[in-house]
Amino acid sequence: MAVTLTHHFADELPELALERPAAEAPAPRLLALNQPLAAELGLDAAWLRTDEGVRFLVGNAVPVGARPVAQAYAGHQFGGYSPRLGDGRALLLGEVTDAEGRLRDVHLKGSGRTPFARGGDGLAAVGPMLREYVVSEAMHALGIPTTRALAVVATGRTVQRDTPLPGAVLTRVASSHLRVGTFQYVRALDDPDLLQRLVDHAIARHHPHAADAERPALALFEAVVAAQADLVARWMLVGFVHGVMNTDNMTISGETIDYGPCAFLEAFDPATVFSSIDSGGRYAYANQPLAAEWNLARLGETLLPLVHDDEAKAVEVVTTALEGFRPRYAAAWDAGWRAKLGLPDVPEAQDVVDGALTLLQTEHPDLTSFVVALADGTARDHVVDREAFDAWHARWQALGPDVATMRRTNPVRVPRNHLVQEALDAADDGDLAHLAPLLQAVTSPYGDLPGAERYAEPSPDGADAFVTYCGT
Questions:
Q1: Which of the ends of the chain has fewer CB neighbours closer than 10 A, N or C?
Q2: Strand 164-174 vs strand 263-264: parallel, antiparallel, or unpaired?
Q3: DSSP strands (E only) in 35-146
């Protein structure tokens, strides 16, 4: 099959693109292939399963005319600025035009060292790459904007972490891989022409309406603020905890990126942190909106020269635009909770939503199970203080909740942390038997799914037992 990969990013922003070949995979073997996504991209799934197709998926069979590049970017990592990060173990193979005419990046993770590797080996292990595959496809099924996984391929190479692990490459698809950190890198170069070209590229790829605005850079910023407010609200509504909300992990498109130390809430606790490296709770569940707003402030700083010639005026205008984040997030959060509780948009609904959140914070039930049980009439069994629940329940019932809306809104199955880990541990040992039923469950999150009951149940060991690691 002839695959055509364009190289718009490398052509338009060569200062941010270092041409680099992928490391040779000694014995590539396909572990997971996303056939529906392949079809969206106009790729033949049968061909992708052939030896040549698998070599394409790890970057060892590059289509004629393609120019794989490592992308440059900077970033604040847990609040500390790193001026040069970039794709240390990743490559942008190029872009494809999908069935709807949209440009989509085809990108590798774990494809070997690049000049941005900073002492790392440039490789990835099977477990973390399968985690990204499972969780990103679950997020897509939940309607949450996300980068997606096309395939995971075992390389036949051993990766040394705390213990030797089987190596793998993830083939990832995104609207683009432009990040806040991309803009930070360019702004630090103090190159006005490059900054303008980056803004133009981002507008064309993601927010074309901004091109017609009086101040396109400001319109771009406003569009990213809105997209990220909506995205983080969607995360919060299903209990998703990203884990590493650094500025290099915030996209301009408004898609979720980087599923390293991430997980889903079970017992509802706003202070929940799953990442082994987040000792201070910077990216705890409840802190995610504030972290997003902080990252967006960093993006706004990079755009000041293009917003207004007077820096003080530029700061004022960008600050005003950033102030739109909180009301946009609040509106998405409130509307989301009304839908989760099946409530009409009436003033009394806010008191009922607030009461539900108070119950969750004091009783700490499993978030997913509780709202599903509420629709089924069994939520009382999920709390200890039944008198408080009954008082709230009466107010909720008085508003005539729409159970059908609740069932369309609230997933029965999310990637349960212990079940994801079970599948990854087995895969490290060469056993993929757990992967297919897990994927089926999390990509069919709503309603009944016969035989998938265990995928709707919380961990028997309790939520506090789970920790995730970055996989680097």
A1: N
A2: unpaired
A3: 69-71, 75-77, 80-82, 90-97, 103-109
CA distance 47 to 301: 46
User: Is 163 buried (19+), middle (13-18) or exposed (0-12) by CB count in 10 A?
Assistant: exposed
Q: How far is CA 228 from CA 154, 253, 300, in A?
A: 33, 9, 13
Phi, psi (rounded to 5 degrees) for 165: -130, 155
Question: 234 with 288: CB under 8 angstroms?
Answer: no
Output the CA torsion 72→78→80→81 (10° steps).
20
- A 10 A CB-CB count for 16 gives 23
Count CB atoms within 10 A of the CB of residue 60. Answer: 19
287: how many CB neighbours lie within 10 A of its CB? 19
Contact between 68 and 57 (Cβ < 8 Å): no
pTM over 0.90: yes
Where residue 81 falls (left for φ over 0; alpha for ψ -120 to 50; beta otherwise) is beta
Taking a C-beta distance cutoff of 8 angstroms, is the pair 57, 153 a contact? yes
For 236-269, the pLDDT digits (tens) are 999 999 999 999 999 999 999 999 889 999 999 9
Nearest to 187 by CA among 309, 69, 299: 299
Partners of residue 172 on adjacent β-strands: 107, 149
- CA geometry: angle 212, 216, 217, nearest 5 deg: 165
Helix (H) or strand (E) holding 452: none
**pLDDT tens digits, one per residue of 180-239:** 999 999 999 999 999 999 999 999 999 999 999 999 999 999 999 999 999 999 999 999
* 365 within 8 A of 383, measured Cβ to Cβ: yes
Q: Which of 121, 230, 248, 258 is catalytic?
A: 248
Q: Is 175 helix (H, G, I), strand (E, B) or coil?
A: coil
Active site residue 248: yes
Would you state the structure tokens that stand for residue 407, as one six-digit string?
């069932």
